[in-house]
Amino acid sequence: MSASIYSRLGGDAAVDAAVDVFYRKVLADPRISDFFDDVDMDRQRAKQKAFLSFAFGGPNAYTGKDMRAAHARMKLSELHFNAVMEHLGATLTELGVPADLIAEAAAIALSVKGDIISS
Amino acid sequence: MSRTNLLFEGTSYPLESGESVLDCLLRHGQAVNSLCRSGACQSCMLKATAGAVPAAAQVGLKDAWKKQGCFLACVCRPQEALSVERCEVAGTHSATVTRVRSLGANVLGVWLSRPAGFEFHAGQFVQLARPSDGLKRAYSIASLPSESELELHVAVLPNGQMSGWLSTAIGEEVSVCGPFGECFYQEDEADRPLVLAGTGTGLSPLVGVLRAAARHGHRGRISLFHGSPKPSGIYLRSELAALGEQLPGLELFGSVLSGEESELGTQERWQIEQAPLDQMLLSRYPKFDAHRLFLCGHPTLVQALRKRAYLAGAPLARIHCDAFAPPHST
Predict the structure, then answer these.
(1) How many CB atoms lie within 10 A of CB B328?
(2) Size of interface A-B (CB pairs under 8 A)
(3) Could you tell me what percent of chain B has a pLDDT over 70?
(4) Which of B36, B59, B307 sits opposite A50 (nearest CB)?
(5) Three-state DSSP state, B86
(6) Measured by CB atoms within 10 angstroms of the end CB, which terminus of chain B is less buried, N or C?
């Protein structure tokens, strides 16, 4: 298996650069901003960073159970999930990440769709 | 080789070789929050009170938190003995009310003797308790640690139990728990532009920041925005204007909801306008880059301004907030 996107992008520093671009996009998107409009923005940003690190195949210990527990209350639909996927793609495009790596990150994020959407 | 010792809130737990602080505490049945377990989500943040925290356990934390000893337990593998506690734990001290004086419309200045061993940064807050019945309120410290008294600004509310009592409490003893919060001046950045905004007694932590900036010879631009319903609530005007002698980059703005023509406009170093505080601030600062921001006072305004500032380019690590509970008259 080749190295993770995480290490190819430049590890923690790359995620740190990406998280503000990403978090600003979701905060400014009326479809989903309410879910991210946390009173504690520092902690919310940290959660987004953990998510990006996960999508990049970086260090994380998320389990399906964590993902389901964290999102169940929000009653999320396909629309919400797709909005986040759009912003993930747009963020990486903006940062000049090559298309094949973006596709790889999107595939990882897609793999947890079932744990996030309430069906 | 003996095992490294972890002291958690007074109890000793030996760490296994290479074990993280989080794993050790969970193994002993301590309830500590955690989620990603990889040093990213910050759910497991704790505070060290003694011993050296490995640098790896503070990666990504705000400087203000690092200075208070905060670290991430899931990636903290101490090489030597470490004393830790939950972040909200703070010491309790006893102090005496030495002076009280009105500072402006509905604002009471209250000075306390500084308790021995009480360490803080100007702008942090404390929880003040009345010993007779345990009545508690939170107040920010506007004075410097080098002074012999703690200066607090108390909002005077109709039928306010604490504010009413404090107004005649000279000589009374109070208990002081703290300090808390991250609204304080960073001593090592004299050229950084600062933006300070607060409503009502949300000015008190900002005064602490300003005094600390003056003491450390701050050279960068500092814009202070203070909001109050009426011009009479824009308090400590002369004193803050006088800080301009030591702070060449200081600009002072007052935002009021209503006022007479004669009370608006430029006075001393102040520019008083009848305009919402967020509008006044954002019209002068449509973009942020190197700025550090301090936002204090009414929670709705603080949350809204933080979000706007973040979307306008300020990184969250340089936005320090202190939202005061909305005034209530219980």
Answers:
(1) 8
(2) 56
(3) 96
(4) B36
(5) strand
(6) N
